[in-house]
Design goal:
The protein is mainly alpha-helical and 264 residues long. 75% of the residues lie in helices and 0% in strands.
């Protein structure tokens, strides 16, 4: 029962934080530390439940994803052009993540580095709203390969746990002139190839630590993450028309200070 409780809590944490700009990895590291759920098996569990959150995006935007395979479309975020944009946005982080994978896992996955990432990312979210340029790109169908490349380079910042893949890509896009909601939605799509690749790679490397008895716990976390992520995405998109990213930035800074104070 104790492990089921931990699986549910971590599934909720993953689902709530994967696609909003607060860092799911950072929150999972902190939550795992507080719950005493750490080690190789816990790391593999956290990787596995990310798949649930990723599939929530595919389920919510299934028409858009099907449109990527409509090769009659010659423009917009669909067909070969849509696939090209996802390739461009994924390449920088895939290359850098592959090179730095072991260093990141062995050195940066701890509460202190997460707190630093949360704090720096929080300040960035507040500043981007203060110095936000006038949007020049509105709507997924108006994105260009240059927009995708800028977002892809910005996504590399998220290799530091706590920075947040969502925050890095959204901030990068908005600074380049992509409208707020469009930046958030493109961030969701950009997450799918990069997180599938990253989780697949990590699972292959850590699969040996799993046993058949782990399946129920992993399944519970997966399902909880899927449901929570779907609800969080809908709520997040509904908020973007009414608020800025400043509240998320303040939240990140507060959490960073609490982590540094409580986990000294």
């Amino acid at each position: 029962m104790d492990e089921i409780f931990k699986a549910v809590i971590l599934g909720i944490v993953e689902g709530l934080t994967e696609f909003i700009p607060v860092s799911s990895t950072g929150h999972l590291i902190i939550a795992g530390h507080l719950l005493g759920f750490e080690g190789e098996r816990a790391n593999t569990f956290e990787i596995f439940i990310q798949l649930g959150a990723i599939l929530a995006v595919v389920a919510l935007y299934w028409r858009r994803f099907l449109g990527l395979f409509d090769f009659k479309k010659k423009s917009g975020f669909g067909g070969l052009n849509g696939l090209w944009l996802l390739l461009v946005v994924s390449i920088p982080a895939l290359i850098l993540g592959f090179i730095l994978h072991d260093f990141i896992k062995n050195t940066l996955f701890n509460p202190t580095t997460v707190a630093i990432g949360l704090g720096v990312g929080g300040i960035a979210l507040i500043l981007v709203e203060r110095f936000l340029p006038k949007p020049k790109t509105i709507g997924l169908d108006n994105l260009t390969w240059k927009d995708a490349l800028v977002v892809g380079v910005a996504q590399c910042v998220a290799l530091w746990p706590g920075m947040s893949r969502s925050a890095s890509t959204i901030v990068g896009a908005m600074l380049y002139g992509v409208e707020r909601k469009t930046a958030a939605e493109f961030s969701f799509f950009a997450a799918v190839p990069i997180l599938f690749a990253a989780t697949g790679y990590d699972l292959l490397k850590s699969f040996k630590v799993l046993q058949a008895s782990d399946f129920p716990i992993f399944a519970i976390g997966f399902v909880v993450s899927f449901i929570t992520a779907a609800l969080a995405i809908k709520f997040f998109i509904s908020l973007l028309g009414r608020i800025t990213f400043v509240p998320f930035g303040i939240y990140r800074i507060v959490v960073a200070v609490l982590v540094l104070v409580l986990m000294r």
